[in-house]
Amino acid sequence: MLTTYTRSAAWSIFVGVLLLLAGLIAIALPFFAGIAASVFFGWLLMFAGIAHLVYAWSERGAGAVLWQVLIGVAYLIAAVYMLGLPVAGVVTLTLVLAFYILVAGIFELAVFFRLRGLPGTIWFLVDGLASFLLAALIFFHWPSSSLWAVGIWVGISLLMSGIARITLPLSLRVIRA
After folding, report:
1. Number of Cβ within a 10 Å radius of residue 161
2. Could you say which DSSP state residue 118 is in?
3. Contacts with 169 (C-beta within 8 Å, 6 or more apart), sequence order
4. Using H for helix, E for strand and C for coil, what is the string for 122-166?
5. How far is 12 from 165, CA to CA, in rounded Å?
6. Residue 29: burial class (beta carbons within 10 Å; 0-12, 13-18, 19+)
7. What is the mean pLDDT of each run of 10 residues along the chain (177 residues)?
């Protein structure tokens, strides 16, 4: 049991360090990280489009088949766009990211106003306002914000995943001791 824990902890730390390094590289080179994200999403859309087309043949009824085919074709068109024009894909992803951050900020503010007065709710206000500020930065500087926005967010996500993968086994090691 202890050997399994030690081996899995070592792998978790190893993967965490790799994620940490990838996150730092993405933050240092945000445009290239954005291009990589655009290509990655393009391939995801390609596989999803193919899956919808394959699934269409299992549907019953012309309407259901047609619907699945149309969805599959829409995915494939988006995939070809993302893979064929990755820079344009990053510009599109940046706009989608800005809308996502804006909506998330609205929800964070709604939570703050719903729970205000409770200890710690000030962080919902801070998060909501920071989300508004970031969304505004992206919107007001779009499309030039495409040079940094997606790549920075990918980098931060990789960085946080790496930190989580490193700190959990180390924390468990302290608890076990």
Report:
1. 16
2. S
3. 8, 9, 10, 12, 13
4. HHHHHHHHHHHHHHHHHHHCCCHHHHCHHHHHHHHHHHHHHHHHH
5. 5
6. middle
7. 61 90 94 92 94 89 87 94 92 90 90 84 86 90 87 86 80 64
CB-based burial, 76-106: b 16+ in 10 Å, e otherwise: bebbebbbeebeebbbbbbbebbeebbebbe
Q: How far apart are CA 102 and CA 79, in angstroms?
A: 25
Q: Give the CA distances from residue 96 to residues 33, 104, 160, in Å, rounded to whole numbers and listed in that order.
A: 16, 12, 22
What is the per-residue pLDDT for 165? 82
Structure tokens belonging to residue 148: 């940094």
Q: Which residue, chain included where needed, has tokens 């970031």?
A: 134
pLDDT, position 1: 44
Q: Which amino acid is at 170?
A: L
The predicted structure's pLDDT at residue 166: 85
Q: Where are the alpha helices (DSSP H) in the chain?
A: 2-28, 30-56, 62-84, 86-115, 122-140, 149-176
User: Taking the alpha carbons of 56, 57, 62, 64 in that order, is the dihedral positive or negative?
Assistant: negative
